[in-house]
Amino acid sequence: MVQRIVEAAQIESLDQSAIPRLRMPERATVFAARAARLLQLADASNPISGYLHLMAALADAQQRVLTNFHAPMPSRESIELNQRHSMPIVPALTDARDPAWRDVLFMLLDDIDAAGALTPALVQLVVRLRTTDAAALDAQADAILSLRFAEIDPAAAPFIMAALQVVWTDLASRIDMKDVPYLDTPGVCPVCGSVPVASIVRVGGAYEGYRYVQCGLCATELHVVRAKCSNCDSTKGIAYHAMSAVDARDEDKTELARKAPLKAESCDECGTYRKIGYQDKAFDFEPYADDLASLTLDLLMGDAGYRRAAPHPWLWPEQPKDER
């Protein structure tokens, strides 16, 4: 079979109306697929194998909770208001956040607890989260969604984010994509207003060969032209980096990078990178899972002078303590 390579200029000139703008999350499988992929990637050679196993259990718990969870949908008036103002249709940063998200958090903790084999540190964390008051939990949710790093509790954040993900993925899975407005801000989810984690070039049907960035909160995927930086929209200074090519001979680097199922796409205009996976090279590729499991590639990109376009919601860096 001969593959047709589409050049960047050709991609930009395509009729954008023929390309599906959005790919809404598949409610019945979204977290289950993520859990399965995390387990695939959690082999003994992965430096965070144990953590990936824990996060796979958390994703499994998310799928079980999502099955019977239904958040209140936005009113028609709210939808039309957000459409007129080019705002996310169900914004995550809102004073009207459904308090049921905290119930979801406790259900996830119960599920993880029931799975057993918790480490002492994790047992303490579960107890601490269960006894944290509502205002403090909401404050943590606000800090996470606003990316206020200094205020985020890195140990608790993945579980809080997991609960928020259930709520907004539920909403996204039931929203009519025709209601989702176009936003003026590049690289922002038009459903919830959050930032993407990683991107995927999909295979099959209407999505064949197109790149989608996956929202880190609601799992909605937004089409972004492959010739552009998914963070700043620039078409200049785009480059691709792959772990398999790092130690290779110069004459082999290009070929190894071409075959890699996961790369880091860097942009010299904004100095950031975001990972991109190719489903034709790894059919089970799942942006959220593969991004989390490829910490070594993050270290490589940091050494090269690039910073992540957005943090992974399940892996927050420890912030330096104020020694004053």
What this model shows, in words?
By secondary structure, the chain is α+β, with helices and mostly antiparallel strands. The chain has a domain at 28-179: FdhE-like fold (Alpha-Beta Complex). It contains eleven helices and eight strands. Strands 1, 2, 3, 4, 5, 6, 7 and 8 form an eight-stranded mixed β-sheet that branches. A hairpin with a 4-residue loop joins strand 6 and strand 7. Helix 2 packs antiparallel against helix 3 and helix 2 runs parallel beside helix 10 (287-293). 37% of the residues are buried.
In short:
The protein is α+β, with helices and mostly antiparallel strands and 324 residues long. It has helices at residues 8-13, 30-41, 49-67, 76-84, 100-115, 120-130, 134-146, 157-174, 250-259, 287-293, 295-303; strands spanning 22-23, 196-201, 211-215, 221-223, 238-241, 262-267, 272-278, 307-308.
CATH superfamily of the domain at 28-179: FdhE-like domain
Unreliably modeled segments: 1-14
C-alpha geometry:
globular
> Strand count, sense and closure of the main sheet?
8 strands, mixed
CATH architecture of the domain at 28-179: Alpha-Beta Complex
* Count of β-strands: 8
Using only C-alpha atoms, the radius of gyration works out to 20 Å
Mean pLDDT: 89
Q: If you consult CATH, what is the topology of the domain at 28-179?
A: FdhE-like fold
Fraction of residues in helix: 40-55%
Number of helices: 11
CATH class of the domain at 28-179: Alpha Beta
